[in-house]
Amino acid sequence: MVKVHFRLFEQAVKTVTIEVPSRNTTIGQIRANLGNRINTSPDRLRLLYGGKQLEDGPSLFQCDIKHGDIVLVQVRLELPSQEPLAALTPPDSATNSPPPPESEPPTSATAADVLEATANVPDDEGCPQMFCVKCKNVESKKCRECGCRICGGKEDEENTLACDDCQMYFHMKCLSPPMETVPDGDW
Q1: Which of 31, 131, 156, 184 is 20 to 30 A away from residue 80, measured at CA?
Q2: Residues contacting 39, CB < 8 A, separation 6+
Q3: What is the CATH number of domain 2-77?
Q4: What Gene3D superfamilies does this protein's entry cite (predicted)?
Q5: How many Cα atoms within 13 Å fall on the side-chain side of residue 162?
Q6: Digit-coded pLDDT (tens) for 15-60
């Protein structure tokens, strides 16, 4: 079981901890589980991790969310439903006159317009990039936190394995004994 903490931002800030069966659980499944737990619609929840918004497709492993990490949850406001324009016009009016001018200038925006506009902005990726505090993601520096746990190197990514238990990276050539092929299943 993997425990992930979710910090909710509503009227008051509170933390909810959810036990996830594995790191292969998708963000969409977690969003639905969290929505059921706090009695709100899952599509009103915005999950943020590492400064990026999480999309429904990737898993915890793909987003590099580990045991004990904190995911920020922003609960979007529930806006009143708007009636369609056809329901607002009386059925007995047969004139095709233009609608009356609005009282607001066209440059002003309502909260619904802003929310709708920001909801459709695509993210660069579904998962945030990992940022190493120790080496500041400098490729030339050797780092045992974000590179190979044994040699610290970051090169040869196609021959680098990630341990399912400790979430550390290892070059296949650095293991004792060295591995020639990627193992099947968990290791």
Answers
A1: 31
A2: none
A3: 3.10.20.90
A4: 2.30.30.1150, Phosphatidylinositol 3-kinase Catalytic Subunit, Chain A, domain 1
A5: 11
A6: 778 888 888 888 899 889 888 888 888 888 888 887 788 888 888 8
